[in-house]
Amino acid sequence: MTHRFWPRLLRPSTRAFIAEARRAPHYSFFDWLHGYVYARWPYFYIGIGTGEPPLARILTPLANGVLKLWGVDAGTEPPPSASPRQAVTFADTYHGKVVPLEAATRLVMVNEEISLTVPEKIIPYNRARDIILHNPDHIVVLECPCRAARANPCQPLDVCLIVGEPMAGFIAEHHPARSRWISRDEAVSILQAEHERGHVHHAFFKDAMLGRFYAICNCCACCCGAMQAQRHGTPMLASSGYVSQVDETRCRGCGECADFCQFEALTIPNGHAIVDAARCMGCGVCVSKCAQEAISLRRDPGRGEPLEIHQLIAEASQAGLL
After folding, report:
1. N or C: which end of the chain has fewer CB within 10 A?
2. Residue 96 pairs with which residues in a beta bridge?
3. What is the domain extent for residue 267?
4. Do residue 260 and residue 196 come from a single domain?
């Protein structure tokens, strides 16, 4: 009797999350519990990750200990003697793929349910590489936990796009004061407005979020926890697969591109812009900020391949996987 009664006490979106978790291969109860805590209390979770709350100094060592119990190394590289499960680093479990505006727009405009695993040449991590979209038109915008954790955050706060079920429903039901349902067109407008502000689009994947893509965040270097981790040596972000290049005959050295570069990949040392390819993540912000059209993106095979959802869907369809 109790076994039948207690699930009724759970919110519908929590029951949907549990049902989807049961269908996910290799997804344990502890994975679900981690995902529930992350999605239920994202502001506390991300706040600890960014080190902003005073309590973070106490809880961060505890969180690292829990990660190790789950076989995740909180550092950047696994120890040489690690077993395959122990070889998983934090970046493998929670990471983002830089996507230029056009690719981000295509992600929120998907109009069919899909289930595919993204090749490692696109998402270069051991875990969390699936794109499984149920009800892809269900999109919720959430106040950014990274920005909310800062004393003087960038504005606006409502820029994190949660895409598909059960994630969108869970966030909307549990955070009604900080989220709202939006249409695809509204999602595109948010992406465009953030691009104009010079912010970078990241498609985020997390193992605890059913091991899949769940959000597009619009990130600034001053607030974003993932960009902060990247600067401190934890490779949480994968390049778009592109790198910026400058046409010196067009460049006037105005510095507008460098001012907006979130990755500090552009400098103006000799009257024209120079790209530090090692820093450039191929977000395309600088391209749109150059009035002289002196900057463009070029494919760099050494940085992996772009996340192009339409191409992935076409390839999966041809292979009979959809």
Report:
1. N
2. 204, 237
3. 242-303
4. no
